[in-house]
Amino acid sequence: MASLVTSRAPTKNDTAALRRLYFLRFAFASVWAVLMFATAHTLSPLSATLLVIYPLFDVACAAVDTRYAKASQGPVRGLYANIALSTLTTAGLAAAAASGIPAVLRVWGAWAISAGAVQLIVGALRRRRGMAGQWPMILSGAISTLAGTSFIAQAAKTDAFLGSPAAYAFLGGVFFLVSALRLGRADSTGGIRP
What we know:
The chain is mainly alpha-helical. Helices cover 79% and strands 0% of the residues. The protein is elongated and about 50 Å long.
């Protein structure tokens, strides 16, 4: 385990690449949440497509993040786990969409719990390496695990709708925005600080 965290410090280029990725994730989550919330009361072809696109985008972002982590000789196991979870979730949501909103909420909840746990671990490892923008990611991971539990509970209610995943995605995007801003602030002060 020690070999995962005793690598070179991230460079300004590494940090700039991560910031761009976080800004992109914020923008995508914001647009996705608006579209999903507009279709939240029914499981239409549009909402089903949106549901499948979200974890696919997460796979793409995690793949980019993995390249960044490899370049800085950082931990990649958690990112590989995230790619696997999001890929499985994509398939799970495609299948659940045929069964209705409660099934979708259960799959989304399981994903939120597992992805939140991975995010907590990756954020904590990066924090140990001295990257300032990781506190929001750690907090986001903790919130994700709690939100996932609430999605599963909401699936049992008769008035279940897809507004909660939309709000969850937007909040996650805000955490990416905060992380990007913190990383920028750390770069402008001449160092990456906790």
